[in-house]
Amino acid sequence: MKLQGKKIIQLVSDDFEDLELWYPVLRLREEGATVHIVGEEASKKYIGKYGVPIESDIAFSEVTIDDYDAILVPGGWSPDKLRRYEEVLQMVRVMNEKQKPIGQICHAGWVLISADVLKGRKVTSTPGIKDDMTNAGAKWVNEPVVVDGHLVSSRRPPDLPDYMREFIDVMSKK
Predict the structure, then answer these.
(1) What is the model's pTM?
(2) Residue 36 lies inside a defined structural domain of this protein
(3) What positions does the domain DJ-1/PfpI occupy (predicted)?
(4) CATH number, position 85
(5) Which residues are designated catalytic?
(6) Which residue of 25, 34, 120, 122 has the smallest Cβ count within 10 Å?
(7) Range of the structural domain that residue 167 is part of
(8) What is the number of structural domains in the chain?
């Protein structure tokens, strides 16, 4: 268990891409990490794009960011909602400043764009937000997974095994 003792934030809002949220949570827990589901409200049920629910453990406002080793942003349509919360953007900014692992997949790049942490970074995402990523100053590439220091990005559900392999590798070195 490579990640024993590590604590990770998994952000959530309605309309997350079911696999892009659940697959990382399960893989990270398999590696011994504690993964907290963090949403606008604590103990609230959020529903994915395909109807799979998940309940939040804590609210954005209750997070003590220094207690965590990494943060994950899911894809789907939830990133468009998540980026509207200053608490979410601040969590991402602090993780970036402290060089702690940040995972983003699919449309999750929208949150990092709004947090203004992509300038000069090499990333990938769903091709649908390529222009958004490059307009934010990122160098976008069409690859299954891209690691740029502490930032791990991926395109879509078929890339999840590559994404989690690299994210776990980055986490295990921190």
Answers:
(1) 0.97
(2) yes
(3) 6-168
(4) 3.40.50.880
(5) 107
(6) 120
(7) 7-172
(8) 1
